[in-house]
Amino acid sequence: MFNTDADSETSTTNGSGDCAAAAQRAQILRDEIDRHSYLYYALDEPVISDAAFDSLMQELRDLERAFPNLIVPESPTQRVGGYIGATFESVEHAEKMYSLDNAMDLAELDAWLKRTRQTIGQPLTYTCELKIDGTSIALTYEDGLLARAATRGSGITGEDVTANVRTIRDVPLRLRQSVSHDDATYRERIEIRGEVYMPKSSFDRLNAQIEMESAKKADGSQPRLFANPRNAASGSLRQKDPRITASRDLATFMYALANPSDTGTAGQWQLLEWLRQVGFHVNPNIAYCSTEQEVRTFCEQAISTRNDLPYDIDGVVVKVDSFALQRQLGYTAKAPRWAIAYKFPPEEKTSVLRSIVVQVGRTGVLTPVAEFDPVLVAGSTVARATLHNLDEVRRKDVRVGDTVVVRKAGDVIPEIVGHIEALRPLDADEWQMPKKCPSCGSVVFKDFDSVAYRCVSAECPAQRLERLEHWVSRSAMDIDGLGPRIIENLVEAGLVRDVADFYALTIEQLSSLETGQLKYARQMGPQRREEIGDYEQVPELVGDLVASKLYDQIQVSKRQPYSRVLFGLGIRNVGKTVAELIANNFSSIDDLRQASEEQLTSVEGVGPVIARTIIEFFQTSDNIELIEELRQAGLQLEQDNSGRKPQTLAGLTFVLTGTLEKYSRDQAEALLKQYGARASGSVSAKTSYVVAGDNAGSKLTKARELGVPTLDEVQLDAIIASGEVPQIS
Question: Lowest mean pLDDT: which of 93-107, 577-591, 638-652?
Fold first, then answer.
């Protein structure tokens, strides 16, 4: 367990085992969340559901709450996440589409109910709605006609999917006249929000169709089935051909307006009735609750009936009903204070544990993974679950042959809860961590500062691919187009062994690589067609055009700053923020190589554990050789201070809260850092200034309680222009 003494600033920077483990876990979570955000939003290739994503986010929020110094500007918890793809035109929402905070159990729901009641100072009424497991949509009507449909996207801008949404049968193309609140029905512009989902029967039919079409192919390839209805709905909504969307049998439930006052309704319950009157599909499984006990009862009933519904749900959305009180409660930067999503407890099933295999990660950590008989849990079939580390295996006391209890954390991430002792075989032996790496055969060592067992060989094949993928990732060298499959092919072809080899690649070598996909090629000549038909499937090559672009991206990456090179090297415990701190204090990689542990730990944010891993990195001859190869390739191995601004804000800590008009939070923090300032995500007595934008929340309140000076955006502009803090009257 981590030491969660969050009030002690020293405890988050002194390099203790708890803090180092928390920092390492937080960085892993940030990287994983960013990866899944990119897969979902940019590539339209999600591999986990919203519930799994929520579970990762919740764990990161808990870590950052326990260790406030881990909060960094680039953390996904500091923004409303999302990417906008290039396939559809980008459009701006009338108002921001916020996400919801989660209550992971009834105790957290009770705490939220109590908090809202105490804030308002009186008992409240609520509207409860089932949380549909689909994809968010915003429908804009002009003069009563459907003018535009957009995905949620970043929450501020989304993708125009109007042509596809027009094929969904329960979306009205023209609004009906409201009988009770008719003044807003044909207002010039109104934006309605809700969820697009795929019914369970349609999902089963779609996957059956995919399997049938795959069986007709002669290549023997496995069908790429959708994992769950939510993924199927998201993928169907973003098809380039609206006819495909039309064939997918999507449906909607609508439940909100960008500006609910447009309807003349007083609260959520009345709004749902108005939506139904003007022609929208509104979920009938809703409740108006006059007491907090009624809210809890609705949530408990939803759990018991969820499997009987014709669509997937993953919780209940509870909203303060009154719009006037909603405005009084307001918003945080990410979510409304007047609503919360109660998430269902995970479903549990039993299975037989057949084996425990070991995976080797990018940093060499050996992770035991349980493989058990496939079992249907919370809507999908699972057969594997991570056991994290040897201590966790011992704590749960699971052994090969055990009947184990399986569930999905956050309703999606598979995990083993424990075993059933009465069903344990007599010959079930305690599992042992292998003494040699299963990938390369090198001796395995246990970390002195954690529970991890690790392969330290730089030539380990299992680590090689992940190290290479980390190097080209967006936060490191940002080499667009070098995906996992192409990297794997480069390794298999013997063209790339370490990251320096990327810079020796030629266009010819890149163009001849296989992408991992097959394409149909027309055969020439009647005799050939008689033999094998008009078409055959052949491996698709990268080709000259794409290879040229990849080559250019690799060359451009040589200009990435020294801090990104440090991060890309994958030094254990050195995340993006720590790499920036190190680059600012050791102006070249040669200076860093000569630094002592004392010099390293003098940098704020670098403790003894991080310092030792940096020193260990430079004590490995393979790593020194790699750095020299990167130097020869022309990468930036020293800090460019030619345009460095005077460090007039050194020693000052700024916290930004609320919405700024001219800057995103990341942009403002980066501009302050140019003058040597430090940006933090939490307010404490050591905070120098709090910059408050619109809708500033609890951070502004805490700043006032602690007597921390506050600045507005005009004063922030003055600081960015001059590097000096204006005098505060």
Answer: 638-652
Residues 398 and 684: their CA atoms lie apart, in Å, by 44
Q: CB of 518 within 8 A of CB of 540?
A: yes
Nearest partner of 141 among 189, 90, 102, 203, judged by Cα: 189
Measured in residues, the chain has a length of: 729
3-state secondary structure of 695: coil
Alpha-carbon span 324 to 330, nearest angstrom:
10
Q: Give the residue among 622, 378, 376, 654 at the shortest CA–CA distance from 500.
A: 622
Q: Is the pLDDT of residue 485 over 90?
A: no
| Cα 431–Cα 433–Cα 437 angle in degrees, nearest 5 | 140
Q: What pLDDT, in 10s, does the model give residues 164-199?
A: 998 998 898 888 776 555 455 556 788 999 999 999
Q: Which amino acid is at 440?
A: C
pLDDT tens by residue, 126-174: 999 999 999 999 999 988 888 999 999 888 888 899 989 989 988 988 8
Could you give the residue numbers annotated as active site? 131
- Is the distance from CB of 403 to CB of 419 less than 8 angstroms? yes
With 0-12 CB in 10 A as exposed, 13-18 as middle and 19+ as buried, what is 432? exposed
Q: Do the strands 653-657 and 689-692 form a parallel or antiparallel pair, or are they unpaired?
A: parallel
Q: Percent of the chain beyond pLDDT 90?
A: 37
Q: Which domains does the chain have, with CATH numbers?
A: 10-78 (1.10.287.610), 90-343 (3.30.470.30), 348-453 (2.40.50.140), 474-633 (1.10.150.20), 653-722 (3.40.50.10190)
SS3 281: coil
